[in-house]
Amino acid sequence: MKTSDIAALLLLGALWGASFLFMRMGADEFGGMALAGMRAIGAALCSAPLLLSRQRRIEMRTHWRPIAIVGLANSALPFILFSYAARSLPAGVSAISDAIAPLLVAMSGWMFLGEKLDATRASGLVIGLTGVVWLVAGTVGFSHDGGSLGWAMAACVGANVCYTFGAHFSQRMLRDLTPLSVATGSQLAAAIVLLPLTVWMWPATTPGAASWLAALGLAALCTSLAYVLFYGLMARVGASRSMAVMYMIPVFGVLWGLLFLHEPVTVAMAGGCVVILFGVALTTGMLRFRAAPTLNEAAAEQG
């Protein structure tokens, strides 16, 4: 990877990690539904210049149904679920939970789509899911408010289930479309769906300036700009290398929560993060163990 691509990858990880900080900052005053709607609507407005491309407009008109489904699965529903979770969970915990998406993609592909898992990937799946249990138990089990935290963790898992469905669906139904067409169309679909719900659930008290800045950061930086960076990276370095950003989101999410919200880094957070990322590295093939040589191979090397 070029230096510019590495810089773009780091920036993308920082932006997506910051999304949990911004949701934590704005969720209380906006409410989960209104904040999710502002994120989708703002991102659609920021992405409007991309509609100037005639090819993108044609692709969106021709494939609007599957693009709308991706908009629901990858944007509208996860935005709502993560915004709801942000009212109870620290930003760092929500960010760590986002790392389970590759695990769910691999597991669902094996269970429902007939994709094969070798021993290394299967081990990574077990290790990663163990880390999830560790994180959930450490976050919920030792809190006086375990009920609401439990629902918040369930919302994070639900958001990642949505991402998993969106990944498989877009891979099968939209693989021939240009990535920016899918990104722009899906944000537009999410905005259309969430607009009436945002109006209906708008808070009675006008949110303060900090909450508005958080909503703007979510829409413009963590969604619109981040998707442009992500799809540009995929075009230059490929999907597998671009997915390395999943390892950076928890790190940046915990860092921003520590720096700006003074959230403590607990043993459960640190341990769960390490175990989950190790499992993700094995499951996605980023980390491989070299098989021990057979007797014949060892003899050949010595000879």
- Give the beta-strand count: 0
Mean pLDDT: 84
Number of helices: 14
Radius of gyration: 20 Å
Q: What portion of residues is helical? A: over 70%
Major sheet attributes: none
Instruction: Pick out the low-confidence regions.
Output: none
Distance between the termini: 37 Å
Classify the secondary structure makeup into a structural class: mainly alpha
What percent of residues are in strands? under 5%
Pattern of helices and strands: HHHHHHHHHHHHHH
Number of domains: 1
Shape: globular
Subcellular location: Membrane
Protein name: DMT family transporter
Transmembrane segments: 30-52, 64-85, 91-113, 125-143, 149-170, 182-203, 209-232, 244-261, 267-287
Membrane topology: Multi-pass membrane protein
Give the gist of this structure:
This protein is an all-alpha fold and 303 residues long. It contains 14 helices and no strands. It is globular, with a radius of gyration of 20 Å.
Main attributes?
79% helix; mainly alpha; membrane; 303 residues; AA-Vitamin_Transporters; globular; DMT family transporter; transmembrane helix
Q: What's the SSE blueprint?
A:
Blueprint: H1 3-30, H2 32-46, H3 54-62, H4 64-86, H5 91-97, H6 101-112, H7 119-140, H8 146-173, H9 179-200, H10 209-237, H11 239-242, H12 245-260, H13 267-283, H14 295-302
Explain this structure to me?
This protein has 14 helices and no strands. The protein is an all-alpha fold and 303 residues long. 47% of the residues are buried. It has one domain. This is DMT family transporter. It is a multi-pass membrane protein.
